[in-house]
Amino acid sequence: MAIMGTFAFEEDFLAAAKNLTSSGFDNISLLSPLPLEEAQEVLGLGKSPVRHYSLAGAIFGAISGFAMAVATSLVFILPTGGRAIITIPPFLIITYEMTILFGVLFTLVGFHFISGLPAWSDRPYLSSASVDKFVVVVEGADGEQAARAETIIRDAGADEVRHVEDGQ
Amino acid sequence: MSTIVEKLRQYSKPGYYDKFDYHWTMTIDLDRCTGCEACVVACQAENNLPIVGEERFAENREIKWIRIERYWEGEYPDIKMGFIPMLCQQCDDAPCETACPVYATYHNQDGLNTQIYNRCIGTRTCAVYCPYEVRYFNWFTYTWDEPLEQQLNPDVTVREKGVMEKCTFCIQRIRIAKDNAKDDNRRRVRDGEVVPACVQSCPTEALVFGNSNDPEAKVSKMMKSPRGYKVLEELHTTPSIVYLTKVQS
Amino acid sequence: MFDHGQPSYADVNKDIISTMLETGPKYWTLLGITVSVAGICFFMPWFYQLIVGVGAAGMNRNAVWGSYLSNFIFWIGLSHSGTLLSAVLHITNSPWRKAIYRSAEAMTLFSLMTAAMFVMVHLGRVWFVHWSFPIPNQMGLWPNFRSPLMFDVMAITTYLTASSIFIYMGSVPDFAAVRDASTGLRRRLYTIFSFGWRGTAREWHTLGWAYTFFAVFVIPLAVSVHSIVSWDFALSAVPGFHHTIFAPYFVTGAIYSGTAGIVTVMYCLRKFLNFERYIGQVHLDSLGKLLITLSLIWTYINILELFSTWYGGTSFELEALSFKLTGFYAPLYWEMLLFCAFVPLLMLFKKIRWSWNKMLVISILINIGMLTERFIIVATSQPRKFLPGAFGYYVPSWIEFSITVGSFAIFATLFLIFIKWVPAISLYEVKETLRPLRRDA
Amino acid sequence: MAAIAGPAINKMSKISRRDLLQFIGAGGVGVAGGILYGEGVQRNVEFLIPQVVPPEDYSPGVATWYNTVCNQCSAGCGISVRIREGKAKKIEGNPVHPVSQGRLCARGQAGLNVLYNPDRIRTPLQNAAQRGSGNYAEISWDEALTTLGSRIGRLKIEGKAGRVRLLTGRTRGHLDELFAQFMGLLGSEHYQQYDFTYPAAIRAANRISFGVDQLPYYDIKHADFLLSFGADYLGTWLSPVHHSLAYGHLRQGRQGRRGKTVQIEPRMSLSGAAADEWIAARPGTEGLLALGIAHALVNAGNYLGSDRDEWSIALEAYSPSTVSAETDVSEESIVRLATEFSAPGTSLAIAGGATAAGTNAVASVVAVNALNYLAGNLGQRGGVIFNSDPAFSATAGSRQAGLRGMLDLVEAMEAGDVEVLLVHDTNPVYALPENVRFRRAMENVPLIVALSSFHDETTAMADFILPTNTYLESWGDDVPDPGVGFPVASISQPVVAKLYDTLAVGDIILLLARRIGGELPIRLHWATMEEFIKERWREEYELRSAAGEDQDFEAFWRASLEAGVWGQPGAATGDESVPSSSSMIASITDPVSKFAGSESDYPFVLHPYLTATFTDGRGANLPWLQELPDPMTSVVYGSWAELNPVTADELGIREGDILEVESPAGSIRVPALIFPAIRPGVIAIPIGQGHSAYGRYASDRGVNPIHIVATQVDDQSGDLAWAATRVRIKRTGERLRIIKTDGVTRTLGRQILGPKNDHA
User: Model confidence over D25-50: pLDDT tens digits?
Assistant: First the structure.
């Protein structure tokens, strides 16, 4: 059982969100057509752990990149141009590129883990949320809880409130 | 463990990690060279260089592993002509080698700068990097008018379109000489036992070829001549070909 | 910010998504043209060249590198428009970026692809190109990481990967919007594209962070890519190539031509997708200012290059210099200076900076200039190396010209396909620039 | 390879073992796309061993080397041919042969192009349409020989054998003897040779000066000072390879002694480029210059012979001052040359090229001979050494027709006195001036038979073409002329099985003799040329074995075959006896060439020159030589006319402007080339191109300057004075790109030829 409140105005939407959190609803999601700093603050989202992934990727890339270059020259001991077998400067360039490559890839992976995407299962959603409506979704609330949530949302000035079964 | 470390240390030093048995070297005495171009034909015959035809020459796409460059000095009547045979200098610090992304050209045990045709993907970077412009690219797959192909040397590959090629110091001859040396249990090839086609043909004996690791070899003696110099020395490609200047009287 | 009054959130969705859903005959004819030009001018000559050999092009002993490589540099350069620009502006969060960055990044992606095509065309034995990638194979072949060309391979593959991820992640919320606006197969497709994006605060938050990191990675990458391309030349001893200035020279040139490219694309988007409402004077003006700055830097570096060559004073360098300034290709050189150094100065006048048509002309001239610049670098240095006996010159063959033309068609084709699959303007970021509606409003 | 340890080598072997895998790999790639697939796979199948070092399991086949004689020019170098799987792969000099000593010139090595030339005639041919149409029908040998045999036989019976004529190129050794016998037995004294390059003047001059009718051995090798009057001894003169060897030795072969060379010629040749001093005397006055030097030499009292007074009288008229005015060579340099020439140490003067091809040719060479005499170079090491003892039959030279002989032949043909003309290995239609009208004269000959391996301008007129083996497929022998100072004879033997239905010239003659009948078959009883040669060698051997040779002939024969040459290095190096000077003094005449065409109408002197590659045009059908950049100009494929830059500026001529070069005898159109080392007022055009029918590589390419040479005879030698024609040039306004491999021919101050501070 989930309750969805649709707002036309950003300010009302945020107000509703605040009230809900302050009155102890923790399982709420705030759908908006554009990123809203305030909404994220309401949910108390601080620094995203994505950055750890980026760092890990970069480090991994750097090491593997350099390792690959050195390994190659040691496996194929083919002297070229009188240079050393292990020639640092060119290998640093390879390292550099690999650092970035894996940094990006890991960040991508990180994004998916943290945001929980892809998630194609049908979750409470209103298509207008991608246009101009702001939607508050309160999940796992039932009976008296639900009623409270609904009132809070209505008070905040929702255009409409609807009840949807979870996992529909 | 220590050996590994020490190998790594060794490998991170420039230069070659191993003392070669051979360092094939050529000296070219410009005081003997008459520019007759016997060497050019000798090379063409030995190394299956294509007959490219008039249009290709017009397009500057001829293939001549060794060519004679000519430079005038002065004006009529006090004018002099200087010939200089130009072929792959088999540089020890060859700019072309580092350029190849697929190791198609590298430095072999005899100090030769070798081109592996079937590894080449035709980026042509080596030719751009070569200051001596002695690398030649197969813009097309060349054919021979029957029965001229019967002359082709079976010891040398015919190159296909899209690969780079260049002077090899007649490596096929070197290989045969080495095999012979091996057969009669000599560690090294005797001096003068093997010479490239150009050296062999030179009517004035201007070209001398040999192993400069062997101080007794004729080439080692020639290299010591006060007239000796290397072309474009300032680029520090450390060529394996030493020229002896023409004496100006 | 908005020349024609502020649109509502709904308008934004309608205006932008409609350009994807409603496809008129004009689009199809345009697409038809670009596709056939690409086929006839690019692929047919290329296949011919594959059969006879690279000799089909005009390159010769004196210049084994030709227009294929100069085009390669040009397209790589063009690619610096998007990712770099959008990333930099994202981090410095300048609002005017938001309307244009999507298509700018698309440019990046597609010009990179075009550039990659030119590598293929350039190679003597393209059917073995996979040997230049670190792919384990039965022959035990493995690339030589000491080679500047390997730097290229690594850099460009990384760049391609990174910028495609960059543009895709930036578009995920918009894919969701398209999903919601469409039905049937398209809806199902975009459900997949959008990963089932709902636009929850958490999703926005994660995306924001990830996106910033992408940007952070992409900026140094973009810089390194063109530096590395320049090193293909600068690492050789060839007079005219062997300059320490080359890396900044190339990078500046790249951003320069890229930015000019954006102006051109903006113009087209405005014209053909009626985005007048979103792409306005402010964008044009800021781009114009950026272009002036870049042109000045570019000119400065050019002068530096000439100077250091002259100061080098060796017979080699001086010959290369005189050949560039007075030799076979001198007219091209001066044309380049005119288009890239002098014409852009016109943008100092607001009148010109604010006129779309004038800016279009200037931006195109700049890119013509840059195209010739790349060509001059390749074509004037090689034929004048160290041994005068091997001096010569190089003239592109008609096949090279045709392939050059075809490459633009390829780019256009990709772009046309793009605007039908991805919102050419970022919906949510435009919305960010709109004043939020208030009850009292 | 395993002999040398080391990772790099292991890698190399790995690479080679990868071939099949690579094929598979490429196949995998191919699946990606049609054309790439095709390319990837096909190429790899075709070149399964395409790499710089052959794979381990591929052991280099063993090549066999056969020694024989080069026939590409008349130097008679010994060559070794490398044979693999029955195919000739490479030609190199024969190390034991005294002429080539293991070295070989470009032309000699291009002999393989002769053997494997796509344009070779593969079966006997009979003219199917009217002459010159080049329209031939194939016939069998039997048919051809029977027809000819009966035709000639009838003439013989009718006693008209004199109406049969044999014209060959420079033929030496026992083939020459066979020809002579054949014609003799036939009853015709008309066996002549025509070779444009034959140094008739030198021979005649030696007869006059020294009373020896031969080409002496010029010992350049040991000379300290070499004075060459127009002789391009490194490119085309007499024996280039041998001279090159000598030159190398002269320059750097002796510790602390570097010989000096001076070249006197209007246009710088290879030898001129090599010389320390290049003097462009006024064309046609080189002989005069020689006399001037002689005068200075005698006056300076550097000649101490008893007959010095006679000399000074004879040379009175040629004081340096007068000579200087005539030759445009400064007085002091004449005197200097005289001193240097008579300075201690060996000196040598030689004459050739244009100097020996004027109307004054013999007189000039005589003058040069005088120089050698006065400096005491005769019979000396590093001087002129007479080949006292040729191995055998060095008489061939005396059959040289020269221009006079050819004019007689033309006359005879026009008068209808020639019934049958046998032509072999000579191309007079090409190598004679057009207004000799040789070609037109041939039309009056009822039956022309060409014995040749290739179609050329002369065979185009033949009714029958009998295809001959190339020199690499035939038996023969040769005595190098000039010799090397001691008796030498070389054997030439087939090195490969003949490629086509062809026969060696000797065998054709023998077969023909059989068909003709009469006493010919009895006297010429040998089945094959090989048999004939062998018998002759046996006779020679027995003759000489009296002079203390003591192995049996078979052994000797085998040894000679193996070595490809027989010689007596120990033998006397010519007679030291200095010939009497009286005849020489008597023969000193004013050696100034008379040019055809007045200076006013024809302001330029035409200087046709032989090139090291094509000589008299013979080499033009060899692709390797067509693709060999000209040593002095780097031009490939085609002709050009060289002008001095100054002259060119005056006339506003740029490289590539097509000029009409017109002489009193005719005109040709040829592109101009600005050549810095040519005397102003001289136009130099290389000989060799301009063939109309000489195979795919030579035909319709360039021009033939011989055709516009005025037909002037040098009276004393009877030879063509091909360097005595004046021309005028006109710009046609058309242009033609001259194909050169050179870029810029100045060093631009780059130290390419060595550091500027030269070690002298």
Answer: 333 333 334 434 444 444 333 333 33
Which CATH number do you get for residue C229?
Answer: 1.20.1630.10
Domain end, chosen from D60, D76, D92, is at D60
- Chain A residues whose CB is inside 8 A of the C204 CB are 32, 35-36, 39-40
Cβ proximity of D605 and D726 under 8 Å: yes
d(CA D561, CA B224): 42
Q: Is it the case that residue C409 has pLDDT exceeding 60?
A: yes
Residue D123 has pLDDT above 80, yes or no: yes
Whether D342 is covered by a domain: the verdict is: yes
In the numeric block, the tokens 């990149």 are attached to A65
pLDDT of residue A98: 93
Q: Report, as an integer, the average pLDDT of D130-142.
A: 88
With 80 as the cut, is the pLDDT of residue D21 above it?
Answer: no
Helices C246-273, C201-234: axis angle to 10 degrees equals 130
Query: Six-digit token pair at D327?
Result: 């030759």
* Residue B190 belongs to domain spanning: 19-244
Instruction: Output the domain CATH number for residue B31.
Output: 3.30.70.20
Full residue range of the structural domain in which residue D730 is found: 604-735
Domains of chain A and CATH, by start = 2-47+120-164 (3.30.70), 50-115 (no CATH)
D208 and D367 Cβ atoms separated by less than 8 Å: no
Does A129 contact C198 at a Cβ distance shorter than 8 Å?
A: yes
Question: Residue C78's domain spans which residues?
Answer: 68-119+143-392
**Does A75 contact chain D (CB < 8 Å)?**
no
Classify strands D488-492 and D476-478 as parallel, antiparallel or unpaired. antiparallel
Distance CA D369, CA D358 (A): 17
Flag whether D672 is in a domain. yes
Compute φ and ψ for D64, nearest 5 degrees. Answer: -105, 145
Interface test with A, best of D10, D11, D18, D53 (most A CBs within 10 A): D11
If one counts the domains in chain B, the total is: 1
- Is residue B135 packed enough to be buried (19+ CB in 10 Å), middle (13-18) or exposed (0-12)? buried
**The two three-digit tokens of residue C332, written as one number:** 């091209």
Q: Is residue B14 part of a domain?
A: no
C106 touches chain A (CB under 8 A): no
CB D93 within 8 A of CB D100: yes
From residue D50, alpha-carbon distances to A88, B57, B134 in Å are 33, 25, 20
Q: What is the pLDDT of residues B5-63, one digit of tens each?
A: 777 777 777 776 566 778 999 999 999 999 999 999 999 999 999 999 999 999 999 99
Q: Per residue in D661-718, pLDDT tens?
A: 999 999 999 999 999 999 999 999 999 999 999 999 999 999 999 999 999 999 889 9
Number of domains in chain D: 3
CB–CB of B147 and D47 under 8 A? no
Q: What is the DSSP string of B228-240?
A: EE-TTGGG----S
The answer as to whether D142 is a domain residue is no
- Between chain A and chain B, the number of residue pairs with CB atoms below 8 A apart is 53
Residue of A70, A85, A87 for testing the chain B interface, max B β-carbons within 10 Å: A85
How does residue A3 score in pLDDT terms, banded at 50, 70 and 90? confident
C146 in A contact zone (CB under 8 Å): yes
Count CA atoms within 13 Å of residue C403 on its CB side: 31
In this prediction, residue D626 carries a pLDDT of 96
**pLDDT at res. D589:** 85
Note the pLDDT of residue D699.
93
Q: Measured between alpha carbons, how far is D537 from D104 in angstroms, rounded to an integer?
A: 26
Of D347, D362, D385, which one is at a domain's C-terminal end? D385
How do D87-93 and D78-84 pair as beta strands?
A: antiparallel
Domain count, chain C: 1
Q: At what angle do helices D320-327 and D286-299 cross, to 10 degrees?
A: 160
Indicate whether D57 pLDDT > 60.
no
In a domain? residue B120: yes
